[in-house]
Amino acid sequence: METTLALMILSLVFFHLSISAALHWRRALYPSAFRVKRGTPALLNPSVQRSVEDANLLYEVVWSGLYVEPENNVLRMADEELASLRKLQPLEVLCEDVLPRTLSDIRRLCHHLEQHRARLSKEDFERTLLTLVYTAQRIAQSSVGHQRELWADALLQLYRSIKKDLGVE
Fold it and tell me: Which residues contact 93 (CB under 8 A, 6 or more apart)?
């Protein structure tokens, strides 16, 4: 009887540890997605893509000109008509509150992506892709050779992570 009880307790502990570890790894990539300061529950863990149409809309936004200013965390879109769409409110929250901005944060993300063995969730894939876009913009804005090389290395690591997740390697 005591052995059975001990085994049950031990299995519950292992179950709890496995769930905690799974949640830890899921939140490790973009922890700020769970701490959005906007106060709207719908924007907790924000994501733009909810359907194929949303994915096409995100592609159109990126293709038409999506600019994330590094200094004041402001999102600008070249197409004002697209920018006015209510469906893109989560994109604004993602770019302004969730995505990593500094080179050290992006390199830390790259390291976590390298260690990540499972497929990325839809939300993490979207965030990684947007981080890749932001990193490409930072390369274009960098003038110092060494700094530019570090941003380019981060871009390459993000690209490899996306490629690995798509199974194109």
Answer: 36, 38, 43, 46
Do residues 124 and 45 touch, judged by C-beta distance below 8 A?
A: no
Query: Which amino acid would we find at residue 152?
Result: A
Q: What is the pLDDT of residue 25?
A: 46
36 within 8 A of 46, measured Cβ to Cβ: yes
Tell me how many domains the chain contains. Answer: 1
pLDDT at 66: 82
Q: How far apart are CA 53 and CA 57, in angstroms?
A: 6
Residue 127 contacts residue 30 (beta carbons within 8 Å): yes
Measured CA to CA, the distance from residue 100 to residue 32 in angstroms comes to: 9
How confident is the prediction for the chain on average, in pLDDT? Answer: 78
What would the two tokens of residue 63 be? Answer: 């293709």
Tell me the residue range of the domain where 16 lies.
Answer: 2-166
Instruction: For 58-93, give the DSSP string.
Output: HHHHHHHHEEEETTTTEEEES-HHHHT-GGGHHHHH
Q: What is the pLDDT of residues 14-37, one digit of tens each?
A: 555 555 555 444 445 776 666 655
